[in-house]
Amino acid sequence: MNQFSRIFQERPFVLMVSLVENTIESARAARGAGADCVKVHTSVTHAASGRSFGPLDDYRDVFSAMIDTLKIPVGIVPGAGLAMTTDETRAMKELGFLFIDGFASNLPTDILRLESVGKMCAVTQLHSMEAITELSSLSIDAVEADIVQHDGYGQRLSVDDLVALRLVAKASRKPVVVPSQRLLVPGDIPALIECGVKGVMIGVVVTGYTTEGIRDATMQFRRAIDQALAAPEAR
User: Fold this and answer.
1) CB 3.0-4.6 Å disulfide test: which of 8, 114, 131, 175 passes with 127?
2) CATH classification (class only), 3-234
């Protein structure tokens, strides 16, 4: 079992932070405020923030320092499309990334053979429940439920969203993580726990663009998760 998979074994609900910038400052802010792991990006334009990220080589020194100092799992989005090479995959492993995250349609089959590196595959509203079941049967460790269409980003989580997430959680044989495509608030946490997902990943829609925003949002969600898990109904 890789270290990323072990997080879901050790924690009943995981708090992940998707960094809006590949900086040590933002990563430290997330870790200090209670994040269980963080995620960086390369070779992609991020849909929610509009930020563009360069190739892995542009960030090698930053990523190496980040991974050495954080002492929590750091994951990477390796870009869009199927252009990731075996050399890049090897470099990600050697740098110390503990998981790779990407849309199932963008990840080459090579990553399934990386036993020591965790894999989180994102599904969209186009995936059937049967497809999610089959995907989660592969050698991956978590499913990211990116099921909100782009024109719905930033809106509040609805009851319909909870129904959709409950269906994904029931279909998946691996833990399901909810990214903040919607404007998640700490008060959503009890409902998310109840619908069967195993974590949230807050990003720019929730944190904003500043280090202070990352720190404050992570702290608020950490508190909400801890309180929800301590409540009698969660036991």
Assistant:
1) 131
2) alpha beta
